[in-house]
Amino acid sequence: MSRSSQLHQKLFAQRLGTSAQHILAKNSVRLRGNRQFTIPAPKEYPYQWNWDSGFIAYGYAHQQPERALVELRTLLDGQWANGLLPHIVFHRASTQRFQPYFPGPNFWASKKSSANAPTEVATSGLIQPPMITLALWHVYASLNRRRPTYAKRVLREFYPKLYLLHRYLMTARDPEQTGLVTIFHPWESGFDNSPRWDKPLSRIRPRNIPKYRRRDRTHVNPKFRPSDKSYARFISLALRLKRKDYDDRKIYPLHPFKIKDKVFSSISYLAHRRLFQMATILGDPSADIRRWMRQFEKNIFRYCWNAKTRSFSDYDLITKRQIPSTTIAGLLPLMTGLLSARRVNGMIRALDQANFCGQKACAVPLAPSVGIQQPTFNHELYWRGPIWVNINWFLWRALRLYGFDDRAKHQADHMLQLIHDQGFYEYYSPKTGAGLGARNFSWTAALAIDLLANHPRDRQHL
Ligand code: 9WN
Q1: Measured from the CA of 438, which atom of ligand 1 is nearest?
Q2: Is the pTM of this model over 0.85?
């Protein structure tokens, strides 16, 4: 590489890294008692979201590990006594400072509904994938290089809460003991509006819903957001959970949306592995964690592998069938590292097809959330086609894991270039490459920092 192109790349990385740090700093909210959190995006998402904070902590970990710890500590302030880590924590400073959000703290009524809910802060009654454990491990690893004694103290502080969270996921959300997590609501998946949920959602007949006003279309173009029909079903499902006091034992027998989510479960599995490493370092490798791992290793194939599509399906506990849907999520269990070389190669080939924006079929060669040849594909509708940075980051990690280094580098280059050209958006159109949804989106910024730090060409800079 010539010196001038090296210099160009250095400047590119510096500029992008600095802008990303700037977004995280601007989206950061200070609370009392040394607590801080980062809103996912100004206006649209004014509180603390669970898996967002996990991704965000990855970004902080490189230069501000202490800030990463504060992010995760502040998230854990919302943890319930039974281990549930809510998908939104409504810190009071946010309520006072920002626009109203629906469904907000009064809708969820966490304190009134459940004795398990924290008394100091209001939360939602749903969960999200446990990125927190992966993020904490990432912060620990970076601290451990310089301050091993302190790093171990950090593990000791976080471990009991993380263990409680994993135990909740593997008991209340897996009474079948499959090692796969049951979600009760599409919002729990993080892939809220994905066609993965169309079929099970079609069973939901919204009734007894008090009048509500959607706020999610105030700050972003309404055509990017879910339809009113889907929204009514989301609200109806959330109300059913509240009416059962968020008590999993009451919910489980009759709840109409019970799905073993292949992506949530894959993230949980990776998180169990990190939890197990933490437990070993602390001298208490719990047999439970090992059991959860073994259950997943067997059952992800038993319940979710689909030989016809040669990818993974979600499993509907009500129909006792896989949910047929071909979205990018079908390839994400790649990240577990459990697949045979034959399966991996088949899935990488699928990624390289036009359907997933290979063969120059899209404005950028990054994976869209739904294949562009699928009937449900829409290039700008939330989770139904756009390119998300977190999904492509997962794929980038998977490519590295299986040794596809050049392919991974190519993926990282395109992600960074897209973010550089368009700005830090919530998602991007595969058709035009344009940034869509919320602007100044925190996890896009945080994962850009992580990509830059892991990217060979920029290793020395961040
Ligand atoms: C509902 C915050 C969250 C993400 C989700 C994403 C979206 C919320 C919404 O925003 O969900 O939780 O209002 O649509 O789908 O993954 O955590 O960024």
Answers
A1: 18
A2: yes
